[in-house]
Amino acid sequence: MKKKILLTGYIGYKNFGDDLLFEIAINRIKQISNVEVSVVITNSSVDCEYLYQYYPDLILIKLNNTIPAFFYTKFDKVYYIGGGILFDYSKKVNTSKFIKKYISNIFRFKIPRLLGTQFGGIGIGIGPYFNSRSLILHKQILSSFQILGVRDNKSFEYAKEMNIKNLYLSNDLSIGYEKLPEDDLIDLSNEIIICPRSYHHKPEYEKHLNELIKFAEFLEENAFKTHWVFLQEDKEDLMKKITSSFKTTVWNPSKMSILSFISIFNNAEVVFSSRMHSLFIAGLVNTPFVAIELHPKLKYASELFYKNPIVISPLEDIEVYKNAFKNIKIKKFNKSNLENEKEILNNLDLKFFEWINN
Description:
Layout: E1 3-8, H1 16-29, E2 35-41, E3 59-62, E4 77-80, E5 83-88, H2 95-114, E6 118-129, H3 132-142, E7 145-150, H4 153-161, E8 167-169, E9 191-195, H5 207-221, E10 225-230, H6 236-243, E11 248-250, H7 258-266, E12 270-273, H8 276-284, E13 289-292, H9 296-302, E14 311-312, H10 318-328, H11 336-357
Parallel strand pairs: 1-2, 1-4, 2-3, 4-6, 5-6, 6-7, 7-8, 9-10, 9-12, 10-11, 12-13, 13-14
């Protein structure tokens, strides 16, 4: 009988970071014989058929918004492949909603585990939280996990506070990605890549988008070439504003390969970004980068590549961006933290491989 493995996370939404994590996870699973691999998408309208290019035998399961009770009992392993999947910016969760979710978690996680389904996750982001009830609900979920690797110190603190067992501080799977462009294929474009995202969780942080536009205008007025690169389609008004004024590339897995998209970063002069996976990719191909800290994970990612990274608050003005551009050119990479993290991640990956394979 085939072992049934369910991969879950933010899969199938044409987000580069999550597609990269999916490719890494699926390539690992390909090493296991006699398995049936499924992915669950909780939005039946999403066009996620592009995932077949990574694994033609994949079973795609589309649901309407929620995971039904006992759904996970269909699988031997439920594998969370990474990403920030457990957080809540709500200031309050009312009592009826809390009770409903608490009971739902019993049927979705606790009972399946008692019936033999095993849960695990690697490179998981936890938090932030602004109410105690969401913390309780997510503790209820994570306490069902047989093994859990979290990607940053803050996530580790949350998990420790939840008293989660078999907990490991590792990192995102993408830091060990090895299918990078060959050195002799580099075609330097001397472009300044700007890789932003809107952030509706904190409306005041949208300021960084306006400052980046002003910064890009400043660069182009001074004979620099800019290239706006989006890891995922963003808000319609933002996309319209950027595409009408600047060279723009949006990750499209139906038309691009992971390697061709990474090559954009490989050929750039500098990257300014508020997206974590773009920092990982820039650092891996040795392109200098400046992080815009929408979330603590941006600073944590930067510290893998620099001893004292340049990290900009999203509330800063254009002058800070100009100074960062001047200083990043003379800043040297220091990847000792990265090498340590890779070793930790490799060790945890072996544990996960054993967990999936058993």
